[in-house]
From TrEMBL:
<protein>
    <recommendedName>
        <fullName>V-type proton ATPase subunit a</fullName>
    </recommendedName>
</protein>
<feature type="transmembrane region" description="Helical">
    <location>
        <begin position="547"/>
        <end position="566"/>
    </location>
</feature>
<dbReference type="InterPro" id="IPR026028">
    <property type="entry name" value="V-type_ATPase_116kDa_su_euka"/>
</dbReference>
<feature type="transmembrane region" description="Helical">
    <location>
        <begin position="635"/>
        <end position="654"/>
    </location>
</feature>
<keyword id="KW-1133">Transmembrane helix</keyword>
<dbReference type="InterPro" id="IPR002490">
    <property type="entry name" value="V-ATPase_116kDa_su"/>
</dbReference>
<feature type="transmembrane region" description="Helical">
    <location>
        <begin position="422"/>
        <end position="445"/>
    </location>
</feature>
<comment type="similarity">
    <text>Belongs to the V-ATPase 116 kDa subunit family.</text>
</comment>
<keyword id="KW-0813">Transport</keyword>
<keyword id="KW-0812">Transmembrane</keyword>
<keyword id="KW-0472">Membrane</keyword>
<feature type="transmembrane region" description="Helical">
    <location>
        <begin position="466"/>
        <end position="484"/>
    </location>
</feature>
<keyword id="KW-0375">Hydrogen ion transport</keyword>
<keyword id="KW-0406">Ion transport</keyword>
<comment type="function">
    <text>Essential component of the vacuolar proton pump (V-ATPase), a multimeric enzyme that catalyzes the translocation of protons across the membranes. Required for assembly and activity of the V-ATPase.</text>
</comment>
<feature type="transmembrane region" description="Helical">
    <location>
        <begin position="756"/>
        <end position="777"/>
    </location>
</feature>
<dbReference type="Pfam" id="PF01496">
    <property type="entry name" value="V_ATPase_I"/>
</dbReference>
Amino acid sequence: MEYIDNLPSMDLMRSEKMMRVQLIIPVESAHRAVTYLGQVGLIQFRDLNDDKSPFQRTFVNQVKRCAEMSRKLRFIKDQIHNAGLVPSPSPASQPDIELEELEIQLAEHEHGLIEMNANSEKLQQTYNELLEFKMVSQKAGDILLSSGSHVAAQETELDENVHISPEYADTSSLLEQEMQPGPSNQSGVGFVSGIICKSKVLRFERMLFRTTRGNMLFNQAPADNKVPDPASNEMVEKTVFVVFFSGEQVRIKILKICEAFGANCYPIPEDTTKRRQITREVSSHLSELESTLEAGLRHRDKALISIGFHLAKWMNMVRRENAIYDTLNMLNFDVTKKCLVGEGWCPIFAKTKIQEALQRATFDSNSQVGVIFHVMDSVESPPTYFQTNQFTNAYQEIVDAYGVAKYQETNPAVYTIVTFPFLFAVMFGDWGHGICLLLGALFLIAREKKLGSQKLGSFMEMLFGGRYVLLLMSLFSVYCGLIYNEFFSVPFHIFGSSAYQCRDSTCSDSRSVGLLKYRDTYPFGVDPSWRGSRSELPFLNSLKMKMSILFGVAQMNLGIILNYFNARYFDNSLDIKYQFVPQIIFLNSLFGYLSVLIIMKWCTGSQADLYHVMIYMFLSPFEDLGENQLFRGQGVLQVILLLLALIAVPWMLFPKPFILKRLHTERFEGRMYGILGTSDNYDDEEPDPVRQPHHEEFNFSEVFVHQMIHSIEFVLGAVSNTASYLRLWALSLAHSELSTVFYEKVLLLAWGYDNLIIRLVGLAVFAFATAFILLMMETLSAFLHALRLHWVEFQNKFYSGDGYKFRPFSFAALNDDED
């Protein structure tokens, strides 16, 4: 109970009363005052420097410093993320740090990290080069050895048959010259060895072949290990190659091609002893570099971990400082340049908190002059502010998505809390599906703290934000499902036995005469015997269609009544007399009368045709109703209601514009000095700061056209909106039929086979269809249709939604935006 008593008062019916305030803050206490106001989070500052660019404002240098520190913190955060480390939470006893000291520390940390990264990159590049050199030395040595053994095997044959010829030097091929005895450089044959990405080998070989016109010998061997790519730091497969050629010009061309393809060339000696010595030296250097790199990484990780302890606090501090200086840039200097002048909006209930915060700022900054808090008069419409909690916030967001309420306008969210999940459940009524949604909602609520601290995906974040909407939708779905008596489309005898029995054994057949009532009516919901009977669809269609009309007329009447309370609150007698009264008469003369007929038909069990009654009420109002008459005097009542509906249309259209014109003329001529209150003005018992209306020139033609559009829209909308509520019937029927199809044509059909595999497949298909079609697609469909009924059919009766949100300067809001 103590927790409930400490909760702030919440008035969702109308937005909080606001006041326009002016703050005159001495320069020495300005920073601290804005800081304390950010902690309170209940004042929205106006920008008094709209005409200045961001670079012409007073505290632009401080904003630049904060932006630079934010960049450094992002750099450090990226380094921690790239290193695979997790930033540790800052200890509770961490000492505070000044902004200037933090700026120096960040500069030192950034410089140290950049230097460590540069050294690490150089060492890593050297390590990669030595690793490639080692692989090239080994693979190229193997290629040269195999070439040498090949030469030894054919040397005798060449000496005997070819080398003795004096014309051999001019006609021998490159391969034959290579296989001649003696050093390769004596015959002009050389080779280039290196390493290249495996994906480029074919193109590389083709380019070498075309450039040298075939006068080369290309040998390749896959590298033993993957090598990191310097551009992307990804491990890639590479191939060692050795190209034999003849001539200096060819060598230059080959080197240029290697450079173009990103191949790294390494000089390999032909002598086997030298190659082995180089390989040993390279292996020794590699082991030294590995230990050096590991030591460097350990040192960098240690530095990043130490920074990570303070990272969250530093980022929060810089974010706050940036917001403080952005707010200070909205303030103006006074004439003496010793005080800053600011203006803004705040709720009336927050006046005491703000004044206490300003007094604290004056005391803590040792200022000789206190902050002046002054309430101003204003002609502007104040911002709209509703205090919400975790439960009501989602419903308020549903309303705000259509439009933010005008200041002190009736808030539809109060009624949306109940009507939105209920209309959803009318379309989604199945207590089996409702239990599935309920389990999901309870899971989200049970793990509220854990999920609220995590970064969720867009869909999951939306689902988590609407967890309490989902909770009520599921509860109402269970309730409506019990009324419809549907559990995954299967009826149950929950509240007793059926009131009906079959006349014969074929009562479910279309040729049967149907069911007979033999006992009292089923106590709650639809009798389970209707399921499967030939009268099922006609009965349920009639029930749900009439029920949809009743709900629609009731909700539209609620919207018109709320319009009355709006007009009464703003003391606008014209809207009551010439908008509320004719609208309530017109709607209820037609569709209110239809709703009464539906209820009377249900209560009396009459067989009257309501379609005939409503159609001939317009076509032949004086015709005798005959067997369609439900009560005595119905024909006379219909004529009276029809006349009232016809009178209501000009009643809405003509009087208000002419009365406004007359009142404006009298005020202009000086015979009337009062201010006329209309729905666009705030002539209520508010303090002066928010009650001053706009003085604009009266344009009769514009007012008349606006009223005519409004009247025509209401008259046509009364018909179309009532018909729009029939979507409740259509979607409820579609959901029920889909459930029946999946149950009978999938689950029962598969269960009819005496085969375990077929049964399991049928069960899997039924579960998939239930989860993805009925629980996801149908939920989304019913949600959107319920949303449309509230935005269009309900809210257009009273809700203008042309206000703007109260966005106070708050550190808590900064943290939420960052999350």
